[in-house]
Each structure stands twice: as C-alpha cells, then as structure tokens.
Design goal:
Elements lengths: L1 E6 L12 H6 L1 E2 L3 H9 L5 E6 H4 L3 H11 L3 E5 L5 H14 L4 E5 L1 H5 L1 H5 L6 E3 L4 H13 L8 E5 L2 E4 L26 E2 L7 E4 L2 E2 L17 E2 L2 H13 L4 E4 L8 H14 L4 E6 L6 H9 L2 E9 L3 H6 L6 H13 L3 E8 L6 H14 L3 E6 L7 H8 L7 H7 L16 H16 L2 H10 L3 H12 L9
Parallel strand pairs: 1-3, 1-4, 4-5, 5-6, 10-13, 13-14, 14-15, 15-16, 16-17
Antiparallel strand pairs: 2-9, 6-7, 7-8, 11-12
Helix pairs in contact: 2-8, 4-5, 9-10, 10-11, 14-17
Length: 470
C-alpha cells in the first residue's frame, strides 16, 4: 500500500508580525513528526514524504505529486496556523481520487477534533502522540480492521467517532529513528546556521512549566530518552553528513543529570557535531552551560519574555531578572550563542514596561532577539482567561476551527494597548535591538560568505531602520 505524508505549504499560514524579510529568509526545518510516522509504519508499505514548504510547491504541483505517488492514504500535518493549507492538500488528494483516505494529525486536531473532523475532505484524525495510531490505521485500512482504538477519530455513516487520545509513549528509547532518507535534505536551512546541512531531533517530550501563553501538545509530564539513545542518533546524523542538529524538545534542560550524561557521552565518543537546544532560565547554571558547550552545544534558545518581574509573573514565568542577567553574561563569556525571545503587550503590561523589556533585551545583548506581540492561542491559559473575563466576546478560535477561511488574523491581547500601538512598539523593539553599531559589527565579523551576507542583509533590511516609539 502506498502512503504519502505531507507537510503543507504555508501560503495561507496564520502570520505573526515578524518582519516579512525575517520570515522569508529564516529557512525551513525538516518535518520531524512526519519522519517519525514514516519510520513506524510497517516496512511492507511504501511511504513517501512530500514537504510542500521546503519544495515551494503550489496547488497544481501538489496535485501532480499526489497523482504520481498513487497513495491509498494521505497524511497531512495540521496545526492551527497551517490548517487552511492542510485542507488545500486534502482537497487536492480528493480531486485526484475520492478513494484516497485523508488523515490529519497535529495539535489543532487535538484541540478541535469535532470541528476538524466535520470539515470537507477529512476522513480521519490521529490524536495525541500520533506515531502509533497512524501505524495502526495503516494496518486497519489494509486488512479491513476496526478503527476503534485510542488516538483515532473517524466518520461512521457520516457521524463523528472520536476515540480518546493514545496514551503518551513512556519508553521513548523504543521509538525507531526518524526516516531522514525520506526528505530532500538539501532543501533545509536556517538563517542562524547558513550553509550548514541541518536536521532536527527530539530527546524528550512534555514540559513541566506552566507558562500561560503556551499549549503543550505532548503534555506537562516530562519523559526523556536515555543519554545513549540520544547520542546514538546524533552519531548517526554525523555519519550521514549533517553538520548541526536542532534539538526541538520543549525544554531540553529539565533533567540536569540527564543533560550532563548526554554531554559526557558525547565527549566520551569524541563526537563533535554542533547542536542547539531550548532551555528554561531556572534550569541553567554555569556548570551545566559549560558542559553543554564542551559537548558541542553552540546555541541556547531561551524564552525571556519580559523585562519586568511583574509581567513575568503574569505570564507564569517564575524567573528573576538577576538570574537572567547572570545566565546571559556567562554564555557570552564562554562564546556560546543565545537566541532570546521576548513578548510585548501581555495582560496588564503598560507602554513603560514594554520599553523596559526592549532596554532589557539590549542590556542582555544576545546574539539574536525575537520580539512578538502577546497572542492568546487556543487551549492556553491566556486564552481561557480572556474568555472567562469576558474580554473576548466569542470563542473565536473555535469558530475559526469550524470554518477556517483565509483572511483570519489572530487577535492580540489589546486590553491595555491598541493593536496599532503594539505594532509600532514591535517595530521599535526590533530596530532598537538590531540598529546598534556593536551588533552590526559583531554580525559582520561572523559572516563567512557573500551569500550569507546577502541573506542577512535582506533579513535585516526590514528592521534596520532607525525608529522611535510614539
């Protein structure tokens, strides 16, 4: 049986207000979820991955590729941001043949299963951690078996049947390595590491922190792979020619002892591949950061979010500014890069506090800073609070899920400041951070080629203009 797994295009993706130049040059990362799904399906099936984003495919080209693959099942990644494009793929599949079974999976399906299953051209949803349910579905389709098992939703005589999500996978070491041979690996790149052959990995699932703006697709209970399992896969990536690995765990550094064990195993084997990781400030200390650096970690992605402890508390970030300062100072001292994330326009936040956040970003001086406007996403504490307080008059995310039409723009939290003011402050934040002689000279010193310089210049052109807040 032929199976086609599709990463949808992003032509109708719900956008945040990053500068368009940054969005267009930021690159594309491999679709790790699809690669895992491909690896778990029985090898008697022929599985292909079609990454429409990486290959920049339009609707006509997508239809041609579906027709050429002649699949019985088309599985499509569906996040709330990409649901419109996921449905475009579903429609294209059904236009090729009504006999093709369309399966959607992803966080959007978990949050809004009934609404998503009711949409045209959708036959099945995989819920929760989808690798095992999708593999079971493939067997059920081939053998004519029952669809009544955890992690699957489907239509029976036109009526929805929504089974409970599959239980979280406890033994993550038991998962086979993702199928990296199924993707066009030369198509993937990152503005942070230009010219490098990159890939993605996960070493854990779940996040124990309770940030009000975050939806945890893999749950709050932390589960992790062993150090040996992690390093085995990193070694395989190095043998395959990959030069850098992005660890996309929600928070890689939750278990300090495990991180140290991974670092020790990397050093014991003499493995020198570069890697990035996401970390929470409260899980970092100089000894741990130093161990990670010696083991090849070249960059930490850290959610700072705000420059005042009052706003941090509102967001559920129980961190202190002093500890943030110490962490960034230490990473700079040992030459480890940092990418810091900041939010403006959070509940209760004033313009003066936003300006303090911008000043704090400049003070920390990370290698990269990304500012965004606080946006209440579905199934987050922030969105629930807005509904509960009556600030949002309708459950607009649920309405969008039932009718995902182009043109929808996610509303910001505008209780304190209007949208136009937030947009001006967002532009000011990016420009104040990046329009500094110190920053520009440092970036130029790290630029290794004319191509890299051109990409950085294009990305920077949208933000490197002097500006002041009104």
């Amino acid at each position: 049986m032929n199976i086609l797994l599709v990463q949808p295009p992003t032509g109708h993706m719900l956008r945040t207000h990053l500068p368009k130049s940054v969005e267009s040059e930021s690159g594309v990362l491999p679709p790790l979820g699809l690669m895992y799904a491909a690896s778990l399906v029985d090898k008697k099936h022929r599985v292909e991955i079609l990454d429409c984003e990486a290959e920049r495919l339009g609707e006509a080209a997508i239809s041609e590729r579906i027709r050429a693959a002649a699949p019985r099942i088309v599985g499509v990644t569906a996040t709330t941001f990409t649901i419109i494009d996921a449905l475009l793929v579903a429609r294209a599949a059904k236009q090729v043949s009504r006999d093709i079974l369309v399966v959607l999976g992803g966080a959007h399906c978990d949050i809004y299963p009934a609404e998503t299953l009711a949409l045209p051209d959708v036959d099945f949803l995989v819920l929760g951690e989808g690798e095992r349910p999708f593999a079971k579905l493939a067997e059920a389709v081939e053998r004519g078996g029952s669809f009544d098992f955890p992690g699957l939703a489907y239509k029976k005589d036109g009526a929805p049947v929504i089974n409970p999500p599959d239980a979280p996978i406890e033994d993550l070491d038991s998962l086979p390595a993702p199928d990296r041979n199924a993707i066009p690996r030369a198509k993937y790149a990152s503005l942070l590491s230009p010219g490098k052959l990159i890939t993605t990995m996960f070493t854990s699932r779940g996040c124990p922190f309770n940030c009000s703006f975050c939806y945890r697709h893999t749950g709050c209970r932390f589960r992790a792979r062993s150090a040996a399992s992690v390093v085995d896969e990193m070694a395989a990536c190095a043998r395959d020619g990959y030069e850098e690995i992005f660890l996309i765990d929600d928070t890689f550094t939750v278990d300090r002892a495990r991180v140290l064990a991974v670092c020790a195993e990397l050093r014991r084997r003499g493995l020198t591949i570069a890697w990035d990781a996401r970390a929470h400030i409260n899980t970092l200390d100089p000894e741990l950061i130093q161990a990670m650096a010696k083991a090849g970690c070249m960059r930490l992605h850290i959610g700072v979010e705000a420059g005042t402890e009052e706003v941090l508390a509102t967001l559920g970030k129980k961190i202190q500014l002093a500890r943030i300062r110490e962490t960034f100072k230490f990473t700079r001292s040992i030459g480890m890069e940092t990418l810091a994330y900041f939010m403006i326009g959070s509940p209760g936040e004033t313009k003066e506090q936003i300006l303090k956040t911008v000043d704090f970003a400049v003070e920390l001086d990370p290698d990269y800073a990304q500012f965004s406007i606080t946006t209440p996403f579905p199934a987050t504490g922030l969105y629930s609070a807005g509904l509960r307080q009556g600030f949002f008059k309708t459950d607009y995310w649920k309405e969008f899920a039932a009718n995902p039409a182009p043109g929808f723009s996610p509303p910001y939290w505008t209780k304190e400041l209007p949208e136009d003011e937030l947009l001006r402050l967002l532009n000011f934040a990016h420009r104040k951070f990046y329009w500094r002689a110190k920053y520009i000279l440092r970036s130029l010193a790290k630029t290794r080629s004319l191509t890299e310089l051109w990409k950085k210049a294009r990305a920077g052109a949208g933000i490197l203009l002097p500006s002041t807040p009104d």
